[in-house]
Amino acid sequence: MRRIVTSAKVRSAAQTAAPQAGRTRLIVPAPVGNIGMGRPNDEMELLRSLSAERVMMMGDNPALAEMPERPRLMDFYRLRFGDIQIRHLLQCAKHALDAGQNETVVTACLLHDIANGALIRSDHGYWGAQLVAPYVSEEIAWAVRFHQALRYFPDESVGYRYPESYHRFFGPDYVPPDYIQRDYERARLHRWYMTARLVTLHDLYAFDKPLDFDPAILDDIIARNFKEPEEGLGFDGSPVAHMWRTMIWPNNFL
Ligand SMILES: [Fe+2]
Ligand SMILES: [Fe+2]
Fold this sequence. Notes:
The chain is mainly α. The chain contains 14 helices and two strands. Helix 5 packs antiparallel against helix 6, helix 6 crosses helix 9 and helix 6 crosses helix 12. Bound molecules: fe (ii) ion (2 copies).
């Protein structure tokens, strides 16, 4: 079980990306993860400090696990995502599987918060849907997109209630913005509504619960429902390849 979170092989200094070998490599945090944090913006200072020996990081960061040349879906889970995200996605998929849901729902559960793994949290359903769209059925991508809005609205017909955790996350008087309410209304009338709704039903928060199953039980379902590109995710020339590459090299300056 531990292999899912700890098998990461970290490159030695000698193996680091050749183009910048021997130089100090600086990292400027991505604006989306830095803005509003009250941290001083030292970009100008870093730019002024550049020299032949001091450059902006491009390519493999030795502080991160080495990704295979042709990365597959689960490589991102194992080598880039945090423990919380991996457990949450695997447990959600397993919960759906145990409840007898079909493979479309189980796969949507496995992928639903994929954007939170190593890319971006804000509007994660929309980002996540784009990230997986070229590789899954339209219905799975649709469910990933709309689970975000549906989470805020109960559906007694399947026993889904507004999450208690959202009261803690956002405060008890939080009201989702207009675009979320509009997308919920839109989703409610859609033929795939129940697919996204079932994702919310199995979207359980048990972040501190250890995995009590082997993730390999999902391998066949992934193989049937996620078309791994031959060149590897990030290198297949798809319209979203850059999003996967950003997770491989999150610290690139440009
Ligand atoms: Fe979510
Ligand atoms: Fe979730």
